[in-house]
Design goal:
Layout lengths: L2 E2 L1 E3 L2 E3 L5 E6 L4 E7 L3 H18 L4 H17 L1 H12 L3 H18 L2 H4 L4 E6 L2 E9 L2 E5 L7 H12 L3 E5 L6 H13 L6 E3 L4 H9 L3 E7 L2 H13 L3 E5 L4 E5 L5 H13 L9 E7 L3 H14 L18 H16 L3 E4 L18 E4 L6 H4 L6 E7 L2 H10 L2 E2 L1 E5 L3 H10 L4 E4 L15 E2 L2 E2 L6 H7 L1 E9 L17
The structure holds nicotinamide-adenine-dinucleotide (NAD).
């Protein structure tokens, strides 16, 4: 059986030790094993990063920028190959995997502009013969701990900016789809990045705990579920690290009575079932306002039944399997619970038959109507292809519903009234808002992050907030004094 290794000093690192199975979600078989780091592996990888960071911070901005351009071109030319690696382990269809690479690439392109992003400021003559300038310097070794659902895009939210800013980066990918990280490391090496600047540490909780407590790791970016995000934030900050920890989500899509219902139904189906609902920006709750309910549910149901579920590598498939058998069972359990608690199962995807792949981890698109806020299907993040429709009478009730939900990642409103859209954007409680856009993932030059239980820490990822997170400020005050003004003065220096 193939073992997926760590990556350090520009090459695979494969010590003997424990492993975990990596499944093929379409066939339901084990396709590889992945190494699970122990304390000695954490020390080995961090030591390599420390050595690399010392040299990398001295590398000119011009050279860093050139390397990022090289890496960008390699990722673009190998997109199809990387997408197939992702699909084979995650289960999302290849076109969707290519889409996540394209969105990640936007952050690489943003980071290519690092000479501009790291410009400091200068003030001449703040006092007599005295000038001040500011700069931002790298932190040293920084780590990214990432979830299974975007094995390329989420790491690419982090490492292009961290590396561009002069840090060495350690990626701890999800143990469920760890191969993309190794292919990315190979492409960095091909681009000419010095060994050790981008390392990969495979593993589970043991690897994460090792990074969170290691004194040489200065900052941790985390993306994953809310309980682990909270844990990583608390442990990381308790060990003196800078931490940004993005958590789970329960994204609402509010449909106002004046909306184009066909457009809204298309959006609900695309954003609810794309990637089998395993997206942090998936729509999981449709809030039907006023008279829209019946017509909207009919339109969504008709589209839901037409989604083609099948093997992730088959170009005819629109939606693939879930990532593991355990996750499939969990999602099915939620549909059972919704039915038992009184929701109407309009489209039931619990037991789909997929030709030629009877043992895959299948759940087909499922539509639940008349969901209420006391049901588990409303309260928990299901992270599967399950859309819940909640009906409310007024716009104010819809806004209140979103405000009372503990998550605050993304939210959308569908309306033909510009004033209503503007008011919604102004008063809604969420970090990312779409007006007639169901998955409002910000561009690389804006920053990505939610509110409430969807983010711990104050800095969002990528954009200028990413540059801020991976650097620290320094302010230099300089005087070239005229000899006539020399002599001791024990008072507080004041400006004159
Ligand atoms: P997860 O929290 O199970 O795992 C995330 C990372 O934490 C993985 O690298 C994993 O190895 C590690 N981990 C798991 N259990 C741990 C533990 N007990 N202690 C320490 N580390 C641990 O998340 P997942 O299932 O891989 O991904 C899905 C979740 O990620 C969903 O909740 C989704 O909403 C969230 N997500 C959020 C965003 C966002 O931007 N807010 C983006 C993508 C995914």
């Amino acid at each position: 059986m193939r073992t997926i290794p760590h990556w350090t000093d520009g090459a695979p690192y494969a010590p003997a030790g424990p492993t975990a199975p990596v499944f093929d979600p379409t066939t339901g078989t084990v396709q590889a094993e992945v190494a699970l780091a122990g304390p000695a592996d954490v020390d080995h990888v961090v030591a390599s990063s420390v050595r690399a960071a010392a040299e990398w911070r001295e590398t000119s901005l011009a050279r860093r920028s050139k390397l990022l351009f090289e890496f960008r071109n390699l990722i673009e030319s190998r997109t199809d190959e990387l997408a197939r690696i992702i699909s084979a382990e995650h289960g999302k269809v290849v076109s969707d995997a290519a889409g996540e690479i394209a969105r990640g690439l936007e952050v690489v392109e943003f980071a290519c502009g690092v000479p501009h992003l790291l410009k400091g400021s200068h003030s001449e003559s703040v006092s007599t013969e005295t000038d001040v300038h500011s700069m931002r310097q790298p932190l040293g070794v920084v780590a990214g701990i990432t979830p299974f659902n975007f094995p390329a895009m989420v790491p690419m939210w982090m490492f292009p900016i961290a590396i561009a800013c002069g840090n060495a980066f350690i990626l701890k990918p999800s143990e469920r789809d760890p191969s993309a990280a190794i292919r990315i490391a190979e492409l960095w090496a091909e681009a000419g990045l010095p060994p050790g600047v981008f390392n990969v540490l495979q593993g589970d909780k043991g690897a994460v705990d090792g990074l969170l407590t290691h004194p040489d790791v200065r900052a941790v970016s985390f993306v994953g579920s809310t309980p682990i995000a909270r844990y990583v934030y608390e442990q990381g900050t308790a060990h003196g690290k800078r931490v940004q920890a993005l958590g789970g989500a329960k994204n609402h899509m509010v449909v106002l009575p004046d909306a184009d219902l066909a457009v809204a139904a298309d959006a609900a189906v695309s954003a609810g079932y794309g990637s089998a609902g395993e997206r942090c920006m998936a729509i999981s709750v449709v809030v039907a306002v006023g008279r829209t309910g019946d017509a909207l549910v009919d339109l969504i149901a008709e589209r839901t039944r037409r989604v083609r579920v099948g093997p992730s590598l088959d170009p005819a498939s629109e939606m693939g399997p879930l990532v593991t058998a355990a996750h499939r069972d969990r999602v099915r359990g939620y549909i059972d619970a919704g039915a038992a608690e009184g929701a109407t199962v309009v489209v039931d995807g619990r037991d789909p038959v997929v030709d030629g792949a009877p043992d895959g981890y299948w759940v087909a698109p499922t539509l639940l109507d008349h969901v209420t806020t006391d049901m588990r299907v409303y309260q928990d993040e299901i992270f599967g292809p399950v859309l819940c429709v909640v009906r409310v009478e007024t716009y104010e009730e819809a806004v209140d519903l979103v405000a009372r939900n503990p998550f605050g990642n993304g939210v959308a409103v569908f309306t033909r009234d510009g004033g209503a859209g503007r008011r919604f954007a102004h008063e809604i409680d969420a970090g990312m808002v779409g007006i007639n856009v169901p998955i409002p993932v910000p561009m690389a030059y804006y920053s990505f992050g939610g509110w409430g239980q969807s983010l711990f820490g104050d800095t969002h990822v990528h954009g200028t907030e990413g540059v801020h997170f991976y650097t620290r400020g320094k302010v230099v005050t300089t005087r070239w004094a005229d000899p006539a003004t020399r002599g001791p003065d024990l008072g507080v220096p004041t400006n004159r």
